[in-house]
Amino acid sequence: MHTVKTPSNPNVQLNISKTVSVPAWEYFSLVSLLTLAWLYFVLDFHFLADLLCGLRGDPIRLFYNSKSKIPAQVLQQCRVLKERYAVTPWLSSPHLQTLFLHVNGRPPPVKYDRQLYSTADGGTIGLDWVISPHAVDGVGITSAPQSSASDETPMVVIIPGLTSDSDDAYVKHIAYSSVMKGWRTLVANHRGLGGVSITSDRFYNAGWTEDLRTIIHYVHEKYPRAPLFTIGTSIGANILVKYLGEEGVATPVGAAAAVCSPWDLVVCDRFMSRKTIQKIYNMVLATGLRQYANMHQSVMTRIADWDLLTKSKTVRDFDQHCTRHTGKYETVDTYYRHCSSAYYLANVAVPLLCFNSLDDPVCTKEAIPWDECIANPNVVLAVTKHGGHLGFFEGITAHSVWWVRALTEYMTVMLPSPLMHKQSEISVSNLNTAQGSDLDKGPYLRMSDSGEVAAEDLQPASFANTESRNKFTIKIPEELRAVNGLTRQDSAKKLSNTTIEKGPAQKDSGRRQLESNDRLLKGLIGVGAQNRRMMWLLVYVAVVTSCPLIGSALFFRARGRIAALTKRLLK
User: Fold this and answer.
1) Rounded to whole angstroms, how far apart are CA atoms 209 and 337?
2) Which residues are within 8 A (CB) of 357 and not within 5 positions of it... i.e. 6 or more apart?
3) How far is the CA of 176 from the CAs of 170, 185, 283, 350, in angstroms?
4) Are the beta carbons of 200 and 123 closer than 8 angstroms?
5) Rounded distance between C-alpha atoms, residue 234 and residue 249, angstroms
6) 134-174 pLDDT, tens per residue?
7) DSSP summary character for residue 248
8) Residue 307 annotated among the catalytic residues of the structure
9) Which helix (H) or strand (E) holds 123?
10) Are 227 and 423 in contact (CB under 8 A)?
């Protein structure tokens, strides 16, 4: 303690305690603790919640139609889908899961045999056939396959995600797991990826299904008896589901799986611009797209504005300056809406298993089409609480990917199952379900030259030549073909002059036919009269709104008739 005399009053003494200095390590510890707490919430860590639950993981939620046969015949035998998914403890964040997948990912040893496939428009696609680890001298059943009409070895086709190819870790995980089951496995790279140059002015995008359609047709022609299973990941899943919806029953695909599909590109685009962490993902994806463009600069400069393309900071910027031009879409949102696979899900006719994580930092849970998945009996949606985007690592050492393990078991049960889809001869290619609506699917009347009135279910134009329409016809006699313009008395008089055979049985049938025809005729004339009254009412409304003074004068002059007309319309 120190004693200090003040200048104004020397007799007053102040006691000043010596300040105790705080060590620097305590400041550092406090700052570190606050930083860790901030990162815990920003990076969506869930380690403490998992620890409180004993690191047992969370159950898998399955969504499907109550009339679906898949749960009873397939899912009951899938042990992995009925268990819990426990995240790797040191990867208990969706961002760490996603980051680890692309930085390391622990990919298994996979070798490919490259085949260059030329498309009809002059493009080139790199097809990577997975070489079996049990092959001798690098030649196995999955390497450089020859056509075989009698080969029934199951065939698995994998479609990678955005800017991904056969070298990505998650692709190698599912490719290795498939080939180890003895299945012939093929990775179909997108145009311009996998080290293949672009040889035409066409590029792939989120809704470009022509390349997938071509590859599946090519594989099916080579092995017509082989059951075909197709797997799409991320953007590849969106392309796959859109293709299945376009093809309907005409696809040779027996079953399929969509892993972390974005579903609705408009919703995902808004989500990627919402938070700071999502904006970082957006910039990373845009960097990958710019690198893709740099590899094919000679072609890109002919189609898109190269200066604007290289300045793209987000995926939307790249789609604005490049994708919408190459895909011939008017706007970016038009491209997103047209290519969103959720609108095609209702027409999927093959067993489809979908994987999504609720904490996916790229493909938000807001875009998951819950109702559409449940409405289609061919679709099963498996949702986990955690997993990130394509990560789903499990085990202390993150040696395994959960969705790969679950999907492999599902394929093992599904491939020999009678639920595998068989290709139909009905061709429904290029069905654009995105333009349809439930409002235009009601019955309508159509009168043919032969006097038939047909009530039909409206179907898309591509169904025009099929036998799938629900139709019933009413045969109208010759007397009713010119019903338009007849009064009810005129038509009754004309029907009374109709010659009818005088046989006992024909009298009753003729009388019933005339009564039925008269009811139909009255209904048609009534509809016509109703339409005429509605037309005059609309004319009056138009006059009132355009010329108020004239409309008011007409109202006072004919208000009695207008009131009576309104009452009739409301009846």
Assistant:
1) 15
2) 94, 260, 365, 383, 384, 385, 386, 387, 388, 389, 392
3) 10, 9, 31, 24
4) yes
5) 24
6) 754 444 444 445 556 568 999 999 999 999 999 999 999 99
7) G
8) no
9) none
10) no
Burial of 513 from C-beta contacts in 10 A (0-12 / 13-18 / 19+): middle
Residue 84 near residue 57, CB atoms below 8 Å: yes
pLDDT tens column, 212-239 = 999 999 999 999 999 999 999 999 999 9
Active-site entry in 93, 234, 312, 341: 234
| Buried-exposed string 51-84: b where 16+ CB fall within 10 A, e elsewhere | eeeeeebbebebbbbeebebeeebbeebebbeee
Quickly tell me which residue has 């010119």 as its tokens: 482
Residue from 357, 389, 421, 491 carrying the catalytic annotation: 389
Respond yes or no: is residue 269 known to be catalytic: no
Q: Of 253, 293, 274, which is closest to residue 420 (Cα–Cα)? A: 253
Q: Which residue has the higher pLDDT, 526 or 23?
A: 23
**Residue 432 tokens, joined:** 């654009």
Q: How far apart are CA 247 and CA 180, in angstroms?
A: 30
Which two tokens mark 356? 């999504």
Identify whether 389 is a catalytic site residue: yes
Q: Say if residues 43 and 388 touch (Cβ distance below 8 Å).
A: no
